[in-house]
Amino acid sequence: MKQLLLIPLGSFVLHQAQAQSPIRQVDPVNFSQVQITDSFWKPKLEKVATVTIPVCIEQSEVKTRRIDNFERAARKKGEKHEGMYYDDSDVYKALEAIAYSLKNHPDPAVEKKADEWIDKIAAAQEPDGYLNTYYTLTGLDKRWTDMEKHEDYCAGHLIEAAIAYYNTTGKRKLLDVAIRFTDHIDRQFRIPNKPWVTGHQEIELALVKLYRTTQDKKYLLLADWLLQQRGHGHGVGKIWDDWKSPQYCQDDLPVADQREIKGHAVRAMYLYTGIADVAAVNNNPAYLPAMKSIWEDVVYRNMYITGGIGSSAHNEGFTTDYDLPNETAYCETCASVGMVFWNQRMNLLTGDAKYMDVLERSLYNGALDGLSLSGNRFFYANPLASHGKYGRSEWFGTACCPSNISRLIASLGDYIYAKTDDAVWVNLFVGSNTTIPLKKGTIKISQETKYPWDGNVTIRVSPDRKTKHKLMVRIPGWAQDEPVPGETYFYLRSAKTNFTLTVNGQPADYTMQHGYAAIDRVWKKGDVVQLDLPMEVRRVAASDSVKADKNRVALQRGPLVYCVEHPDNNGKVSNILLTDDLQFSTSFDPSLLNGVVKVQCEAPVVKAGADGISIQTVKEKITAIPYYAWANRGEGEMQVWMLRKLSNVVLQ
Amino acid sequence: MKQLLLIPLGSFVLHQAQAQSPIRQVDPVNFSQVQITDSFWKPKLEKVATVTIPVCIEQSEVKTRRIDNFERAARKKGEKHEGMYYDDSDVYKALEAIAYSLKNHPDPAVEKKADEWIDKIAAAQEPDGYLNTYYTLTGLDKRWTDMEKHEDYCAGHLIEAAIAYYNTTGKRKLLDVAIRFTDHIDRQFRIPNKPWVTGHQEIELALVKLYRTTQDKKYLLLADWLLQQRGHGHGVGKIWDDWKSPQYCQDDLPVADQREIKGHAVRAMYLYTGIADVAAVNNNPAYLPAMKSIWEDVVYRNMYITGGIGSSAHNEGFTTDYDLPNETAYCETCASVGMVFWNQRMNLLTGDAKYMDVLERSLYNGALDGLSLSGNRFFYANPLASHGKYGRSEWFGTACCPSNISRLIASLGDYIYAKTDDAVWVNLFVGSNTTIPLKKGTIKISQETKYPWDGNVTIRVSPDRKTKHKLMVRIPGWAQDEPVPGETYFYLRSAKTNFTLTVNGQPADYTMQHGYAAIDRVWKKGDVVQLDLPMEVRRVAASDSVKADKNRVALQRGPLVYCVEHPDNNGKVSNILLTDDLQFSTSFDPSLLNGVVKVQCEAPVVKAGADGISIQTVKEKITAIPYYAWANRGEGEMQVWMLRKLSNVVLQ
């Protein structure tokens, strides 16, 4: 994560990190440098700022009173801890979301609230730097005895919140708290080399952020030390009880020896993000093959078409290859958020657009689905079908998802652009602008687009002086008939690869490089690049290995996966056939679900007669909506994967 | 349990117990006094003797090697325990089944095998009487520290096996072992009054059997002492981890204060059998209201039409009232066996036939379903619907069910007859004969019947001399339009209550007393009573409170619940409508499923066209079979509750 601030900080200096490793190909452009103007995303960022973050604040202060634990810990009067042992992390994640949001949506009242919280958090810190209200209130003698108790996980979220808040506001009080706690952990484990396996990974990726923020190498060393702890039988504690085994938190093998995805999905995503982060700096040659193999195992055999992962609620994670049931799909919101993190890191490591394709899929579908259009209702699980008994919640006992989706949306600016010495990379198509310093000069870049509703993207490139450099424009895999790299999903009928790219109105001279159209030319102020992506409705089928999708088809348009939902289809969708001959029409409907492109067709629908005995197939107009927008109009039937022809009829 | 043997036994005497309590109304007639000649049941007892028991022996000795633990424990050479900590109980239950079976099917080789096992069990006993191979092999210092470890449960099954083997063979070696272990438990807990809550109840009912066998009152006192331990917060140990709470094993309230059914179904059944057993002797006035209230909660609101209980696999037990899903019904075989035990005790306590109605329902449906027709395949769960992915198993890791259904079938003789001072009670209609001593003389009684295929039962009553006494003939609730007492299930169209009862060809002079036709007359040798029960097909509906059965109908004929299964209906049953206008025909088919009465009708069936789009309802001949006989011809669809008219169509 890049910093543009230069502030003295004790014995070291915060500065814009320039560390380039032999592995790391690309550097991201930080959210704090990106202005978002997009017609699709800006309202969502506003909703997070004006609705979701106030909900997180109200939950933290009034309804679930998670702030109280910090106050009680600070008073040191032997009061009780309330809630779960990991609840501190919800406060940190809410703070992190606030930090990102303040960049896009300055709000003095919210900033004041954040400062108040930070004072309370700082007051709860122990003299030795330790900070965890659960153990401060239940007995510090038991701290660091149970890997499952999320002490390090909470520390990781504290670090991330502190860095984000520092990046937006320049205020470093929370950063100092985080540094003191991290130094405590370093003294507790790495320096004496006392084994410790993080029960719920998270701190590893946070430590690399802290290294990049402070340039203090010990945080990188601690991150890597924690990674190296895994897979040697050090992991013990409550987590191994009952059905939880070492593979539940990816502790069954040393990380460099891991080749398959296993266990708890969010833990896995955070771990692999941390590994990719460490590899980007220390160039450990063993990490990249592990990452690539596990990534293929996830994306080729264990990912839903929505980019969601972790099919089972039982272990909140992975089961067997191709076991992707739709109605019971767990697909935790946090796991899709984790897919965004990990795939960004893999893209930065390799410069390959296939990781951005997956990031975009998880972002626009599996993750975005986690937040209601109203901004105040949430999904923990994001199934791909419902018989009508599933709806959004106001909050959760374990409330990781609401603040996680909030911080992801608020930090969207982190994922749009990237840079190398001589190139600007456009990864996501989001109306926005930024200024990127390359070796030879500074480039202003902006995008205007109605994406994902429309495939036209106008990219304006304005260098401060005429310079030769590359513009790397990601051409999504779906625009090249590669919906997802791998074996699981494929287009039923090949769409013509008909994206077009022009520079100042003339066909662009480009070469394709790992999924990017690389335009290598001398750029001058006011240059305009036009990208036009093919936005026809694509019919997607799944490999025969995915039993749940047998004889079924899903619809995708651009990056969006579609679904059919009850309110648009006479209250019922499980009686619809999407036969292979259907013709689809599309139109933007500004009154539907805050404005979406809907997909329609005349499809065969099975209807029972009023006599309760007769039955027939009739043609009816069917409407499909973007998957992310379902469950905003009450509970009812929804399906992503629709039958192609009648096979089995079950009467209910 | 009555004993007819008179054998000196140390300081006390085994004799025919005459203890009559103010509560207990009726005494059972012991299996060892009953010869079974029935055309329905005798082949099943033979199958258990010739197939199931050899399977249990092979599993115990060769496949799961549960006998080895006893040998290792006897050697005391520090060898390892293998398997689960409760595996001793499977050996004891197999022995108990052998004991009952030897009565009906003498087999010197099997008896020799049992004697060998008994020698090994006796050799594994500790000098202080303690007997549990798990703790002997893993460390006796930890015995009696964890209520979940089933030490008392295993003791209970040891006691039951010992008594059964003694009753059949007169051999008392195992009984002596059981007595020594029981005395150890009594010294360990009751005498010092040291709190102990049985984690899996079972020993309580076994202790009452031991009291009735030995007439030593301390065993009754120990049983009641254990009951009184519950509900005072004494229960601790692993069992309270995670999702298991005190109510899981009915330890949330003192037993006399309990009014609702909760928790693990088998634990509950064994507990309530034990309470009813103790109440029958000690006349604790607080126990009967608890029993009656809980029984109503089970039968009125938490029992399947098959007599199965415990709808959830999660806790192997009860959830909320009327939560009775069909496909995911757990209905453990052992829980139906437990329903037979408990309802027998309730019937003996009260003399009310409604308990026998439930016993018969559980016996002929939920329990009998647990054993394949071949005798060597088993069900642990007995669902009421299958989409085709459920089949019988050869054995289970936790193998409670196979030996439990074996011992139940082999001990059928325990449930047919009962007696009071001046009456003989006929509870089940099973071809059989016995001799019952009443106060005024001895009565020979026999039954001849093709029940449950036919409603005619010939009862021959032959007193040794002319005497006036009562013959109490149970008239099943279903024969009086009361399929189950209570709120859950009811007949859609009232069947005429047209049972007939004659004595020597003349209409009998009887009064109805709590579900029994009481014929009070002077009986003489050769008297013949004819009962004719109405056997038409009954359509049963469920209360609206049972959501899973909404708009559905089940078929029942006599005591048998029917189902439709794939092999009889073109491979598919979830597309059938059992509309209200259907006419049913019945016929005995000797070639079907070892001979059953099948129920047939012309019913509407929904069929998809070959084009994969069109669909229509056609009339087809549908065949229903007794529920207990399903899953003997491969995996496929099965349903007990059939749709009455089309409501929801789900395409798959």
Automatic annotation (TrEMBL), chains A, B:
One Pfam family here: Beta-AFase-like_GH127_cat
Domain annotation Non-reducing end beta-L-arabinofuranosidase-like GH127 C-terminal: ranges: 537-642
GO biological process: carbohydrate metabolic process
Residue ranges occupied by any Non-reducing end beta-L-arabinofuranosidase-like GH127 middle domain in the UniProt entry: 424-535
Limits of the Non-reducing end beta-L-arabinofuranosidase-like GH127 catalytic domain: 33-414
Protein name: Glycoside hydrolase family 127 protein
